[in-house]
Amino acid sequence: MSSLRIITPDKLEEEYLDPFNARRLDWTRSVFLSRRRLFVETGSTKLGIIWLILDPLIHTLVYLFVFSTIRHNEDPTALFIGLGIIRGMQRTLAITSNPKIDLTGGLKIDRVSTRAISGSIVLHIVATTLLSGLGVCSVLFILGNTVTGTFFFLVFLLANNLFWYGAGLNLLSLTTRMPDLHKVTSYFGTGMFFFSPVLYTIEATSGWHRTASIYNPMSYFVEASRRMAEGEGYAGFDILPPMGFVVLAIITSLLVFYGNRRLDGIRWRMSDRD
Question: What global pTM score does this model have?
Fold first, then answer.
C-alpha cells in the first residue's frame, strides 16, 4: 500500500491513498508494538508476564497485612480495592510521562504513524491492567465479592488508568523538555496514595479533608468501585456529587484527546534530538 508522509516541526502528518487499509495497517502495527512493549517490560525475567500479576498482588497483600491485621481494619475488601486502583494510577502515570518512552516502535519516525504508536500504548495499558487486576480479583473472590462486584472493579480500574493515561501524555510534553520533572511524578504518586481514600474510606474524612476528597479524581474511582463491590449501587454515592462523575468523564476525554494530539509534536522533537 502506498502512502505519503509529511514531517514538519509542528506535527507529523500522514496521508494515505487508501484510508481503510491505512487504519487496518495502524491497528496491526498497534497490536504488534503493544506485544513488543510487553516483551521489553517482562522478557528479561524468567516469570515474564506473571510478574505483572504478582507485583500489585504482593504490594497489596503487604499493606493489607499491616492495616488489616495489625491495625485491625474492619473492611479488608475496601482496603484491597483502594490499593489495587492506586497502584494502577502510579504505574500508568510512570509509563506515559516517562521521557524515555518508545514513540517509534524501534522504527524510523516516518515508517510508523502516531495513531499506531498511541494505539500500542493504550493496548499495552489495557493488557497490563487486566493482568495486574487478575491477582486482585482472585483475592476479592476469596473475600466474598460477587462476580458483578469484581467486574465493576476492573471497569473502574480501566477508567482510572485511562484518566492517568491522558494526564501522563500531557505531562510528557513537559518531561521530554525537562526530564527531571519525571522524578516529581513519582512523588506525586506517593502523595496521592496518602491523600486519596485508599487506606481509609471517604466517610472517615471531615472538614477540609472531605472537601479535598470531593475534588480528588481518585476518590471517584476508588469509592465507586467499593460501592459496586458491596452491592450498594448508586445509593452508595451519597457523599460524592453525581455531577462529579460527569465532570470526571469530560476531563478524561479531554486529557486523552489533547494528549494524543500532542504526540505528533513530541515525536518530532525527540526524532530531531536524535
Answer: 0.80
